[in-house]
Structures are given as C-alpha cells and as structure tokens.
Amino acid sequence: MYLIRLAMRPWRKAFWSQLVSGLAMAALLVMGSFLIWLQQGLGPVISRMDREQVITAYVDPQLAVTEDARLADRIRLKLGAKSVEVRAVSSEQFIDDLKGNYPELAKELEGLGGEMQSLIPRYISASGVFAPDAGEQLRKVPGVESVETSRERYKPIAGAFTALRKLALLLALGLGVALATGLVHLARMNGQLLSESLGILRLWGASAGALRVPALVSGASVGALGGVVAGGLWLFAGAFLSANLGAFSPLLQQIPAPTAWSALWVAGAGVFSGALAGTLNPGESRS
Amino acid sequence: MLFFGLGEVSLMVQLNQVTQNYFGQPRVLDQVSLELKKGDFLYVLGGSGAGKSTLLRLLATEESVSSGSVSLFGYNMNTVSPQTLRAIRRVLGYVPQNLRLIPDLSVFDNVALSLTLSGQRVLSSEARMRVGEALERLGLGQLSDKTASGLSGGEAQRVSVARALVRQPELLVADEPTGAQDPEHTWAMMDALVRANLSGTTVVVATHDREIVRRIRKRCAILRGGRLQIEQQGAALCT
Question: Which of A36, B59, B144, B151 could form a disulfide with B156 if both were Cys (CB 3.0 to 4.6 A apart)?
Fold first, then answer.
C-alpha cells in the first residue's frame, strides 16, 4: 500500500506531464491501431483479388449461336467444374440484363433487329477460384475470340494495396518507436521523482521486486490512461473509418470493422507498455 | 552472535585501510581502520568536510570503497552477494544527514514502512505499538498523521531517527542526528540512542556537538584530513 502511494507521486508532482503523456500515448495508440488494422485487413482483400476471379470469354462471332452452350461446357471443364460458375450470355440475354438499368439504351439496341447479333458480343462469364493463368488457358479454347480477367483489371489496385500495406506497417513501426521514446523519457522523469525515496527503501533492505513496484505502477497508470482513452476512441473511430473507407474503394468494405476485443487489446497494450517503461528506470543507487 | 542464520560474528564493523576518493578530488578518507563490537557506541567528530558523512555512508552500505575493505557482521561489502547485502540492510538503522523521509507518507507511515521492510515478523497490532512508542519517545506523538513534507527540519530529523530506531537494528548509523534540535529534543534523542545501545545495538553517531560528547561519555574518534584518530582510554581527545 505504501509503495502504491509512492507510485502516485509523479501524478501529484507533475500532473500535467502525466496527463499529456497519457493523452499523447492514446493518440499514438489509436493511429497505430488504425494502421495495423488496415495492414491486417488489406491482406485478405489482396489475396481474394488474386484468387477469386471473374473471367469473361468473348465468343467468336463466326461461331453459331447454338454452339454457345457447348463452348460453356468446354470452358467449365477447362477451369475445373467443381468451383466454377459459368454462364453463357447471348445477345438477347444481354439486352434483357440491360433493361433493368438502362431501358432506353436497351430499346435502341432492340430496334437494330438482325444487326444486333453482330454488334453486341456474346460472352461466357465464369467466376470462382482459378489458377493465375486461367485467362491464358481460355484464350486457347477454340471458339473464344478474346478473354478479360478481373485479375488483370485489379492488378494495379492490388499493387496499390500491397504498397499501402507496407507503408502502414512502416508507419506503425515508426509510431511504436515514437511511443517507446516518449515512454522512456516519462519513465526517466518519474524515476527522478522517485529516486530519492527508492534509494532509502533500498538502504532499508527492500527487495528488488518491491523497488520496482512504484515505478511500474506509476508507468502503468499513465499507460492505463492512454490505453483506456485509445481503446474507447478506437472503438468509435475504427467503426466510423470502416464504414466510410468504402467511399475510396468498394473493395475496402471487405475489411471487417474493429471488434470490442481489439479495443481491449489496445487498452491492454497501453497498460503493458506503460508498466514496461516504468520498469526500465527504478532509480539509481548501489544495488 | 548469529546473523541471518549464516554464522557467528565477533566484530560488527571492521574497516581495514579504507581509502575513499572521488574523481579528481583529494582523498576524503585515508587509510582508515576501525573495529566495533556488539554493543559499542562510537562518536565520530570532525569539522565540515572532514569525511564524517562519507564514513557513515560506507557503514550504511550506501557507497562502495575506493580501496581497502569494509566488513559488516563478518561480510566483506566488496564481495557480498545481493541477497546477503539486503539481509544486512534489514538489520541496519540509518539516519542520513539529508534525512530522506518519504514526503508522500505520513509520519506514522514513514516509520511503519521502515519496520515493514526490516522483514521482522510482527503482528500489525505490535507494529502499531512499536511505531507509536518510537514516535512518543521522540516527542512526535502529536504529529503522527502529518504528512512528512509538511514537517519542520527538526521534526523531520526526529522522524528519521524514529524510523531507524523502530526496527531495533543491530547497527545504528546516525549522521548529525541532533543538528537541527533544540536542547530538550537533543537530549531526548540521545536518550533514545543510548537506550537502544543498552539493549544491544551498536551505535555510530557523527556529530560536531562537543557538549553531547562531554555529557554522554562514550568511545570517540576524530577525522582530520581524512585520517581517523581513535581516542585511547584516559585521553581527552574529543572533549
């Protein structure tokens, strides 16, 4: 109990330093949490963009319309029928699909009559988890004029997301260093405030563990302030960011919103790092 | 006499050719040798800067020697293990010149914490009684609940002495304990130190108050130019 009261001395002697340090720590923790969340969340998104593809194989106009179904079967077999959804889209079906969103355009195309067949491409759409070279393989199938894959379309986005992941990790590490530096300076200051009392406790025969208690508790108290504020902020800020990141890219909506557990982790990280910093400087004197 | 269950010792304190100097400074202690047995009482006299506080810091295990050796309870402080050093410190009572009370704690708690850290197994009721007695003996009963940071210099000095006495130490080292006291409290404090000595505590007191030395006759040593002269029987070195 005496040691705990001693641990509170930095709060009495340097209240604003402790408070501002705790709040600065909270800000760093929230920013770090966001970066780690983004870094972790983008991983599965990139992986999905890489693995799950939508392949559009355009049918050679010379091929008879009656052959479309057989071509779709050949494509299905080529891709591996198990996890593939293949759909042959005729010109008429294309128009039907168009009617929902663009009724005027659909009407104009219908007015073209027989010419429509040559103007509107027929295509076979396949979606699922494919090998990276699936598009190349389909190009070789007789009756396929050309192939488009979402993988190719998403390649620049996946590259940008990968770069963003690396940047987020670097920034999180930078924030970690800034946090550690700030905490060590705070621990040194608190160590100065406690050193004389700890010196006399040492001369009374206090154990090494007992001598660490005041600095540890005082560090943990600043860490707890930072951690609790950061945890609370993270819960709200994280949910807000998660909901609004979709404005940048719909793909980012796939990143799950932060959970209450993650907020608890943030709070715990604050307490732990504060306590750890407190153990670094328990005062200087002969051991 | 057994200490820490490790063995029997005849000498409480043994300084052998101790020299102490700090970076670039002349020797503060020069070839000092001293032996104290259980129950001894020694005054250390000397002018300002004579090295009294340095000598007492060595006895209180606060400093290590530059050369020579300090042995307490038979253990050489140059080679003692951290565990034994801790055990030795638990049977030491130390009144530093700068007092070093814990300002956040009350007078009572400062004294009680000293007793707690001595590792003695005492019931809380007995601990309260011992702390209360130590405070009363030094005229601090009324100040029991006062925070240490609000004490005057003289009051703080008495608390520091009470803090050392409450643990009933084997060796008590007091650096100018009466420096800020009025005569009444000076004699009350010296009575407390003599009482502890009579109950077996070895006492070392640094002072420049010759009146105390004259009225309470004990063994005495003087530090001059870093050298320690110990009064021989029948000589009047200190008075």
Answer: B151
List, edge to edge, every strand of the sheet that includes B171-175. Answer: B92-95, B171-175, B202-206, B41-45, B219-224, B227-230
Domains of chain B, each with CATH number or no CATH: 25-230 (3.40.50.300)
Encoding tokens for residue B41? 């009482």
Tokens representing residue A166 in the block: 């690396």
| Entry pTM | 0.68
Q: How high is the ipTM of this complex?
A: 0.79
B3, B86, B98, best to mutate vs chain A, most A CBs in 10 Å: B86
Domain coordinates of chain A in residue numbers?
Answer: 2-48+156-279, 61-142
Q: Which residue of A204, A286, A287 is in closest CB contact with B114?
A: A204
> What residues in A contact B119, CB-CB < 8 Å?
205
List CB contacts of B222: < 8 A, sequence separation 6 or more. Answer: B44, B45, B46, B228, B229, B231, B237, B238
User: Mind listing the pLDDT tens digit of every residue in chain B (239 residues)?
Assistant: 445 554 556 788 999 998 888 877 778 888 889 999 998 999 999 888 888 999 999 999 998 888 899 999 989 999 999 889 999 999 999 999 888 898 888 999 999 989 988 888 777 888 889 999 999 988 888 888 999 888 998 999 999 999 999 999 999 999 988 887 888 889 988 999 999 999 989 999 999 888 888 888 888 899 988 888 887 655 566 76
Nearest-Cα residue of chain B relative to residue A284? B62
B104 and A6 within 8 Å at the Cβ level: the answer is: yes
Q: What angle do CA A263, A226, A41 make, to 5 degrees?
A: 35
Q: Which of A193, A201, A203, A218 has the highest number of chain B CBs within 10 A, making it the mutation to test binding with B?
A: A203
Strand stretches in chain B, DSSP E? 2-3, 7-8, 11-20, 29-37, 41-45, 67-72, 75-76, 92-95, 171-175, 202-206, 219-224, 227-230
